[in-house]
Design goal:
alpha/beta; single chain
């Protein structure tokens, strides 16, 4: 496995999807408001990290590979903050288009004593207009010859359209394509290299897990939280992989870590089972951390050694 992990640093990964800004407000809670029966959070600090598809890019960069982020932000101060956070992490932002019709998607999490108390979402889920879609496709056409794998990170916020995926498939016929799906877009993804729904998404997409392979003509890796993962291959082989998590602290962003690891492993000549095993180790590490977090190649190697 180590030789596969060592190849990560040579890879260029294109991430296409719904970019978000995650804001964390950390505070102290020791009283109830006199105005209403709610907790009062005395704010101690705030921080911003890339979220959604941008967290996938963040994971790619943290694993020593080159991440190219493709998607949209609004024409607002949140976009400036997000672009700054991505640039700080050496994530290429040339494929990010400013869409004046939509705000930058933002998730604000308020935490007291390290427990999440509330989440506030700012978003507009309309699909891309044609002009913005064409700008995205033009960037992908330029980048694709030097791309090792494409990740479709679909949060159903409007970037992933049927036509966009169709065009990407035509542009990138020979490339590895990993899809982190949304059930409403199920039919968009047919023929991808690997599709990675969580258990709830898989249940929304089909009555029987095995049927998804036939319906989508793709291998399926279903992530099942504390039950690990199940890999369904096109030849009918099913591999159940028990979780590596020692302690589940926060599941935020675990799916992003999984798809990032899968894309790097498969483009580094791992088999589907080897890639799934590495992704399972990666997920086990990230759920032990607070908030939208990343992991390193050294942490994955250590997790494998300690098996």
């Amino acid at each position: 496995m180590n030789e596969i992990i060592e190849r990560f640093k040579e890879k260029n990964i294109l991430i296409v999807g719904d970019i978000m800004l995650d804001k964390y407000i950390f505070g102290k809670v020791d009283r109830i408001s006199p105005e209403a029966p709610v907790q009062v959070v005395e704010v101690k600090k705030e921080n911003y990290v890339p979220g959604g598809a941008a967290n996938v890019a963040n994971n790619i960069a943290a694993l020593n590979a080159k991440a190219f982020m493709v998607g949209i932000v609004g024409n607002d101060k949140e976009a400036d903050i997000l672009l700054e956070e991505l640039n700080k992490r050496n994530i290429n932002t040339e494929g990010i288009v400013k869409d004046v019709q939509k705000p930058t998607t933002q998730k604000v999490r308020i935490l007291g004593q390290k427990q999440q108390l509330l989440r506030i979402d700012y978003e507009k889920k309309d699909y891309l207009n044609k002009e913005t879609e064409n700008q995205i496709l033009n960037f992908i056409k330029i980048r694709i010859p030097n791309t090792d794998a494409i990740i479709i990170s679909d949060y159903a916020k409007g970037v992933i359209t049927q036509n966009l995926i169709k065009e990407i498939k035509d542009i990138a016929k020979e490339k590895i394509m990993i899809v982190d799906p949304k059930p409403k877009h199920k039919d968009f993804y047919k023929g991808a290299t690997l599709i990675t729904p969580n258990l709830k998404e898989a249940e929304q997409m089909t009555e029987k897990e095995e049927d998804l392979i036939k319906e989508l003509d793709s291998p399926i890796l279903i992530t099942k939280g504390e039950k690990g993962m199940s890999l369904y291959e096109k030849d009918g082989t099913i591999t159940n992989i028990p979780t590596k998590a020692k302690e589940v602290y926060d599941v935020s962003g675990a799916g992003d870590t999984v798809v990032a690891t899968l894309a790097l492993a498969l483009s580094s000549k791992a088999s589907l089972r080897q890639a799934a095993t590495l992704a399972n180790h990666a997920a086990g590490i990230t759920v032990g951390k607070l908030g939208t977090s990343t992991i390193t190649t050294e942490e994955i190697k250590k997790s494998i050694e300690n098996e």
